[in-house]
Structure formats: C-alpha cells, structure tokens
Amino acid sequence: MDNIVILDCGSQFTQLIARRVRELKVHSEILPYDATLEQIASRKPTGLIISGGPKSVIEPDSPRLAEGFFDMGLPILGICYGMQLTAVHFGGVVRRSTAREYGRATLIVKEPGCPFFADVPERSQVWMSHGDDVEKLPDGFVLTAVSEDGVASGMRSADGRINAVQFHPEVFHTEKGETLLANFLFKICGCKGDWDLGNWAEQMKDEIRKKVGDDKVICGLSGGVDSSVAAALTAAAIGDNLQCIFVNNGLLRKGEAEEVLNSYKQMKLNVTYVDATDRFLKGLAGVIEPEKKRKIIGETFIRVFEEEARKVKGARWLLQGTLYPDVIESGARKGAAVIKSHHNVGGLPKDMNFQLLEPLRELFKDEVRAVGRLLGVPENIVRRHPFPGPGLAVRCLGDITRDKLEILRGADKIFLDEINRAGLYDEIWQAFAVLLPVYTVGVMGDERTYARVCALRAITSRDGMTAEWYRMPHDVLDRVSTRICNEVRGINRVVYDCTSKPPATVEWE
Ligand code: XMP
After folding, report:
1. Mean per-residue pLDDT for 71-89?
2. In DSSP terms, which residues pair with 218 in a beta bridge?
3. What's the angle, vertex CA 81, arms to CA 334 and CA 53, rounded to 5?
C-alpha cells in the first residue's frame, strides 16, 4: 500500500494535508517534524510532505528535520515552511518578507511543462500565509511559479524529485490545490490511488480477530459516532465476544437514551444498559464550579463502568473510539494549556489490567462516518453532532437539579427539532440550548412573569478546536424562541450566542 508521510512542522493545516491526500485514495499519516530517519522509514513511505508551520526558519530554535531526510531518495513536497526549510537545506536564502502575504493571491506558473504543475492554468488563485519567503533559490533548483507580487512560489530540484510551494495547496481556497496534490501523488510519487475504506474495514476486522483471539472485549458506548462505529466494527469481527456498556448519567438529551438503545438493538450489539441517574445527580447536588462538576462526573462514570466491567468474566480488552486527531493532539503536539478537563474511560483502575483496542485510531471523523455507513450503523448515529461526556451538566449553569434539567431538555429539543425541520442539521457542527442561572421579567397574556433565560448556541467547525458561530436564519430563531417561551414553563427569554472559539469555548462550562 502506498503511504505518504507528512512531517508536521506545526501548521494549523497539517491534518488537512493528510485528509486531502486520503481523499485522493492514498493513505497518509503524520509524524512530528523531529521523527528519526528510522521512524520515517518504518512507515514505508512512497513520498514525503513537509508541512507549513508558524515559526521562521531564520530563528535558531525553529523545527529542523532529521539529518539525512533529504537524502532518503524519496519524492518530497515542501509546503510553505517546508519550502523555506528545503531552500535553506540546499543553500538557498530565506528572508523576512517585506509584505506578509495572508489570504488569496494570484499564482503565475513559470514552468507549465513540469509534472507538478500539469493541468494548472498559467494564472490561478492560491492561499498564502507566510511571513518569510525564498529570496534566492538553491543552486540547481528551478523556479516553477511566482506570485503576482513576484514572490518565489514554486521550485523544484533539477531531477524533479523535490518540489516545494510557498502557498497551501491543501486549503480549499487554492483553486487547483487538488490537482497539484494529485500531480505530486500520481505523477511524481507514482502512487496507485487504491486506498479504500471498504478494504480498510475488512483488514481491520482481520486484525481485531488476530489480536483478541477468543478473549472478551468490553466497550463503553456513549451514543456518539466514534464509540458506536468502533463497536459495530468490532462486533462484525468477533460477534458476541464484544460486550458493550451504556451508562445513562441522567445528563442526556430528551429521549436520547431510548433512541440510542433502539439503534443499538437494530445493530444487534450486546448492550448492558445501566441507569445511574440517581448516583450522578446525588454526586452533583449543590455543585456549581464547572471543573468540580466535570471531575465528579468523570469519577462517577469510572466507578459505574468499573462495576459493570467486573461482571464481564474473562474480559481482557477495552475498546475505545479514539480517532486520529486525538492521537496527533496527544502525541505530536505537547504543551497546550488545559482549558477544560475532557475525559473518557482512560482512567480505569490498574488492577483491571485491560489492554486497549483502538481500531479507529488512524481515521478522521468523516472517514469514521463513512465506515459506519458501510457497516450499516443507523443514520441517526452516523450523522449525530458531538455531545460532551459531562452532557447537560455543562449546559445547565449553576447547580444541577432534576427540574432544571427538564426545563433545559424541553428547550433543547425544540431547538434541534426546528433545526432539523429547516434542513440545517448537517451544516452545523453542534447546536444546543444552555440554561442560565438568571431570572428576568416578562409578560405573558396579562401576567407578569419572572423566569429563566435560555441561551442558544450553534457553531460550525472542522474539529471542535476552533469554531465559528453559526449565522442562523432569523425565521428559524424566531420560531424557536416563540416555541420555547410558549411551550417550556420556566423560560421567558431566549438569547443567541454569537461568540466564536476563540475567544469563547464551545460549551459554556
Ligand atoms: P470546548 O467547550 O472545549 O469543546 O470548546 C470542544 C469540543 O469538545 C466537546 N467537549 C467534550 N467532549 N468530554 C467530551 O467528550 C468533555 O468533557 C467535553 N467538553 C467539551 C464539545 O462539545 C465540543 O465539541
């Protein structure tokens, strides 16, 4: 199988490069920029891509690749920082740009006959984002493209094995980005383009069977896409040796537990359902501080899950729906500040001695959705928006009571129903209601009311790391607000959250 290894120099677009390559049916994976030559070679790459990055190659502590990287004899594509690094390595000169280019720019191809620029018109739009540029190409390199402002925007080695561009072909705004990546993969690396999720799923089933043999595997289901698809895949491999546990923490949306259980029944999964609502709500009583709420929920979940897991005799494996972005975030990119303590079942007691089974750890979310569809996972699960582990607890500000949760569930359901009715669900990353600990005065009929405020939040995002507030059509907002005030007792005012992330986070707590 062809494999493209991407060396991550810290660009916000690195994962996007990997996805674009996979969309062209070539497998790709990301390694940190300081991966050793042995690590890179062990991935059996067909070609290498050096990503962009926020640093300047002129700074002494900027990312450098393993010595000998450029001598591995493999095709290389350098993008932005990757181009500057390539230039410096071969003796070229990089300077601070006189004008930082950020955003759309016009590219002019100087060498239309070269394989990398095949089928790209002389002028096209590209996405630039750089503070440095290549002032002098290394000896023996050929200039293949410039920007309208005269910045060197493409170069190649004399033999064409190494290509580099100043702009970002992986970004949607680069008109011919896909053609350029395809040229690199197929014309320069000679990839076949036969990476396919159907084959991947078959191979993964074999791998799971080989790994776990006749052992039992347990899995915590959450109703979300990742754990559900991981379970569907594993069940397809080992059948009833997979025992799933679905814990209702009492913090789910209206009707969610029933709906999800029903879907699991359709999928013929072996599921133990545990309604631990009382235990969670008791632990949370009177707690206001968001981090404390999260801690209590995390710990209670582990205890409940542990009790159930101990009942499954002979269970040796714990199945988790870890995805590729989680792997990259926790491995290659250390040192990020902890804003909120997200959690999962990683904290089970050591004496339980489980081995981790993470069959989705090389997939992106959209690939997981595609595998889910191949395996017949119901659409309502495959399409589902992400939902946080602590559930409605982080959307019910202040202390948590059953009454408040009921009010919040009512408002949230109306919001989602109307979004679905307007056909907007799939273009939104997440949408939900938040119940505020604030009372305001209103008037209903001729009566004065003094009731709570509900905030609505809808965002678009690629990965939840950053997000933009969703421009919800006013008529939808109008219907939602009218219905909430009329139908949900306890709310008399509705506001819409128009804050992106950053500066806000997605959840209010
Ligand atoms: P924030 O609020 O950190 O959310 O901007 C980013 C994304 O993560 C989800 N989220 C969580 N998911 N456990 C989870 O599994 C958690 O504790 C948790 N907190 C936030 C949030 O819904 C959004 O998609």
Report:
1. 98
2. 243, 318
3. 25
DSSP state of 64: -
What is the pLDDT at residue 332? 47
Which range of 102-106, 342-346, 354-358 scores highest in mean pLDDT? It is 354-358
Q: Is the CB of 325 under 6 A from ligand 1?
A: no
pLDDT score of 102: 78
Q: Give the catalytic positions in this structure.
A: 80, 168, 170
Record the pTM.
0.84
Which pair of structure tokens corresponds to residue 309? 């897991």
| Average pLDDT of the chain to the nearest whole number | 93
The strand pairing partners of 356, in sequence order, are 318
Q: What is the pLDDT of residues 204-263, one digit of tens each?
A: 999 999 999 999 999 999 999 999 999 999 999 999 999 999 999 999 999 999 999 999
- CB 460 less than 6 A from any atom of ligand 1: no
Task: Give distance in angstroms: CA of 225 to centre of ligand 1.
Answer: 14
Closest ligand 1 atom to the C-alpha of 505?
A: 5
Residue 336 has pLDDT above 80, yes or no: no
Rg (CA), the chain: 26
Pick the CATH number of 3-188 from 3.90.1180.10, 3.10.20.310, 3.40.50.880, 1.10.760.10: 3.40.50.880
Q: 354 vs 459, which has greater pLDDT? A: 459
Q: What is the residue with the minimal CA distance to atom 10 of ligand 1?
A: 388
> Ligand 1 pocket: which of 249, 506, 508 to mutate (most atoms <8 Å of CB)?
506
Give the number of the atom of ligand 1 that is nearest the alpha carbon of residue 340.
3
The C-alpha angle with vertex 339 and arms to 338 and 342, in degrees rounded to 5, equals 80
Work out which ligand 1 atom sits closest to the CA atom of 386.
24
Among the four given CATH numbers 3.20.20.30, 3.40.50.620, 3.30.300.30, 3.40.50.720, the one describing domain 197-382: 3.40.50.620
